[in-house]
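Me: I'm a chemist; would you kindly supply a protein sequence with its structure tokens?

Assistant:
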Amino acid sequence: MQILNYPVSSEVKKAFEELDVKVEAAYKRGFDGMASLDPELLFQWTGRMVYGMLYYEMLYERDRLSKAR
């Protein structure tokens, strides 16, 4: 498993870590735990993953285009 690292401020990194703790705790409680999470927290958690994927897609495309030259 590869961990995605992407540029964020220290404030955002701390917020991501706090969000991970909340989601992990809910996950450990199973379906009921995940179902009890605030929908906004789930949105933020999944949004972080989308941000990471977009970031890496842009890096991939940049590298692909620079190799074509």
The two ends are 32 Å apart (CA to CA).
